Write the structure tokens for this entry.
Amino acid sequence: MIFRNYCILAKKTARVFVSRRHQLPIQIWQSLRRPSSSMSVCPVLSVRPIRALVDEKFQIVVTNLHPKQEVTLHSLHQSEDNDYWEAFGHYISDADGTVIVMEDNSKGGTYVGVEPMGLLWSLRPVPGSRDGLRLRKRDVLSPMVVNISVHKGHTNQGFSEKDALATVVTERWYLAPGVQRVDIGDRGVKGTLFIPPGPGPFPAVLDMWGGGGGLVEYRAALLASHGFVSMALEYLPAFEQRAVDVDTEYFETAYKVLQTHPQVSGDRVAVLGLSFGTSVTFTMAAYSKVAQPRCCVCISGSHVHPVNKSLFEAFQYIMKKMTKARIDENNHVIWRDVILPIPTEPDLKVDVGRIKCPLLIVIGQDDQSWATVESTEDIEQMMERAGNRHLLTVLSYPDAGHLIEPPYTPHIRFSNFVTQFNRMKVLMLWGGQTKPHAHAQEDSWEKILHFLQKHLYQDLPPAAKL
């Protein structure tokens, strides 16, 4: 992969600083550990790598503490909306006065246990924040800045009022060095293209988000950082007063714009969709004669929607079924029952038996926004009857919710959401529990990348894979 050298360097750096205690090079260990002759040396906080892609693990070591000293590791991020998010874990140093996060237990905080990335995936709005927040990166040309600090004792609140023993500022990037970002407006298609560095041509991914609308770029930027030309496609307006009357032709045109780009291997294009984006992905894979993807990835979605209709007509169909929506005791809206029971009428769901390319489905078993578990069961049965079940791979995660994003993204169980069909603002329940949802995001992203690499990069000459 074109980003391989960058990743290898970062991983080697991380391993040097955080391999197990007895495996640390003696020079590194001696430079980190606290001199036994002095009790006045300040604690030393090491975070490696300081700059990395958002899907890379960082490694945290605290040295120069007193033996068996209680400390709190704290992370703080100010979002682009000027909201503050924090996470923290409680640790006890060893006999040498050291905490190594990759192997030591957090005794409490926003996460517990041995969790190397808990300071990211358990981020939550600080007390007193606005309700219904969701952390999303809008400007991929700038990093997500996270302050990591260590505090005396086991602290649960009031971090801004306490002096830290040590602090390190880290950067988390969606965009690797050398990746180009290009605005797209060709043939009426609106989106953003991300192109990896190097001569190309490269395999490509058409990336579509869900019913929230707007142009969402960060996953496409991360895909390009792993060697795929990727297009973040806008197909629903974020702030207009109605859903646009977009039909299949718009998505086919977007596919052709991506496929015919000079940096793209035209026969190696995949389609990836989340939520309502999966409905489009299923439709293209099953029916389109123009867009014939090499493989498809569908995250937290369903094949249930009126076949060969515009988006406006699809939203009208959903709106008629909104009587099945529920509101829980916290005033959170639950949509998962809207498409249940899964219809048997052929014109109300995509005939997935027609799909001829490898298909990866990713779902959370606690998805409260959409009936993804029931939909996937129906998809498996339909493909089994059609004889193409061998093309399907399903990743199903217990206690994971709807918003399965790139790894170490904070779990959002509910958030504000504006419905496309009537522009109402509601608190949508997405579902999931924090730790298992974090596992689902990490595991599925690794397998999504492997799936895309396998089906888009196979049989390419070695030079094209670098």
